[in-house]
Design a protein that fits this description.
With 410 residues, the chain is an alpha+beta fold. 33% of the residues lie in helices and 27% in strands. The protein has two domains: 278 residues, L-amino peptidase D-ALA esterase/amidase, CATH 3.60.70; 118 residues, ArgJ beta chain, C-terminal domain (Ubiquitin-like (UB roll), Roll), CATH 3.10.20. Strands 1, 2, 3, 4, 5, 6, 7, 8 and 9 form a nine-stranded mixed beta sheet that branches. Strands 13-12-11-14-10-15 form a six-stranded mixed beta sheet. The radius of gyration is 22 Å and the shape is globular. The protein starts with a strand and ends with a helix.
Length: 410
């Protein structure tokens, strides 16, 4: 099968033929900062099909509600408007009107329907959106959008909040002599606990993709990537992942396409989501460690996930990772209270490939090796429950004093 090429830190969306991007400053934070980019526009002249996944928080920001409404209406779609610095969350009817006004202004500027635009926001909750600033910035974005790498980089930077760097990826492959693309950009560093996180992720492809197939492909990719990360265990009000397919290549992929093409496309979407999810965890607020938590041999998939999340979100476990202390007892404790089927006498725990517990019995003579492993910025802890064949993989982080200091006030 044709190999996929995954390239990190690319211009992202502008790598996909037919898409234009802009990133502009409009001082949404109202700090008289006219240099910080805080409004992004992604635009396709060609009509697109779209798919999306959204936060499961009962408190959904008005932009999320508007995106869900537009998606349900079926399109066609032409773009995404996203701002940073203000989440437009817990803002009620006024917030929804502001989100609608944003879509309306973009549509009017480009002679399209408001329902052809998605609107996304990220930032501080409970603040009214400074609409005159945003709309002025949007007019500038419409004028300045383009397809150069600089345009793509500016768009990826404009959606950042507490992130320390932009997050982009481009996946490409050749099929039947023609090169195709799935590219994306994302933001997220804190309030990271799926179902999804305080994150925005936007993907684009030059395939023509029927709506149902696109939604199925995206949902499956999100379930195994963005929904398998955690920084602090908090779920946001604004989480959104969107994908636009503009058909620029003239090639369609769907349920009736050749199996090789369907598999390649699904894998490309998965790889793009996986790369962006990893970038989000790796840029977690003030973290020093990224830890892969692998649970194998569980009686059910649900049990495997429960154990992994209990460990990845345990404050005691995360604190020990920060302290570079291979405290396997905290791992066992978290696994025990996870609510999953577990028999201590069958439990294996290891750091990378070095056992800490075998069949419920500690391996203290290996402690020097554990300590060396947890000094690394990235390592893996594996729990084998020996009760079945189910598995789950979670990317987690440590909990640092820097995180506490950063988040103790806004």
């Amino acid at each position: 099968m044709t190999p996929l090429i995954v390239t990190l830190d690319t211009p992202g969306i502008t790598d996909v033929p037919g898409f234009e991007v802009a990133g502009v400053p409009c001082d949404i934070r109202e700090k008289q900062d006219l240099k910080r980019l805080d409004l992004a526009l992604l635009f396709s002249l060609r009509p697109c099909t779209a798919a999306g996944t959204f936060t499961k928080n009962a408190v959904k920001a008005p932009p999320v509600l508007l995106c869900q409404k537009h998606l349900a209406e079926g399109g066609p779609f032409h773009g995404i408007i996203a701002n940073s610095g203000n989440a437009n969350a817990c803002t009620g009817a006024e917030g929804l009107a502001d989100a609608q006004a944003t879509a309306q202004r973009a549509a009017a500027s480009l002679n399209l329907k408001p329902t052809s635009f998605f609107v996304c926001s990220t930032g501080r909750i409970g603040q009214p959106m400074p609409m005159p600033r945003l709309l002025k910035g949007l007019e500038r974005a419409v004028t300045e959008k383009g397809r150069t790498p600089e345009h793509g980089n500016k768009g990826a930077s404009a959606i950042l909040t507490s992130d320390t760097r932009a997050k982009t990826v481009t996946v490409s492959f050749t099929y039947d002599g023609k090169k195709h693309f799935v590219a994306g950009m994302a933001k997220g560093a804190g309030m990271i606990q799926p179902n999804m996180a305080t994150m925005l992720a936007f993907l684009a492809t030059d395939f023509s993709v029927p709506r149902s197939f696109l939604q199925k492909t995206l949902s499956e990719a999100v379930a195994g990537t963005f929904n398998c990360i955690t920084v602090d265990g908090d779920m946001s009000t604004n989480d959104t992942v969107l994908i636009l397919a503009n058909g620029h290549s003239g090639v369609s992929v769907g349920d009736k396409s050749p199996r090789e093409l369907r598999v390649l496309f699904a894998e490309a979407v998965w790889k793009a989501c996986e790369a962006l999810a990893d970038k989000i965890v790796s840029d977690g607020e003030k973290i020093t460690k990224v830890v892969e938590v692998k649970v194998v041999g569980a009686a059910s998939s649900e049990d495997a996930e429960k154990v992994a999340r209990a460990i990845g979100n345990s404050l005691l476990v995360k604190s020990s990772w920060f302290g570079e202390d291979p405290n396997w007892g905290r791992l066992a404790d978290a696994a025990g209270y996870a609510g999953a089927k577990l028999i201590e006498a069958k439990l294996d725990i290891s750091y990378n490939d070095t056992p800490a517990m075998i069949a419920g019995k500690p391996q203290p003579e290996l402690k020097p090796q554990w300590k060396e492993i947890v000094r690394a910025r990235r390592f893996t802890v594996t729990l084998n429950l020996h009760l079945g064949k189910a598995t789950f993989r979670l990317l987690a982080t440590d909990l640092t004093d820097g995180y506490v200091n950063y988040n103790k006030s806004e």
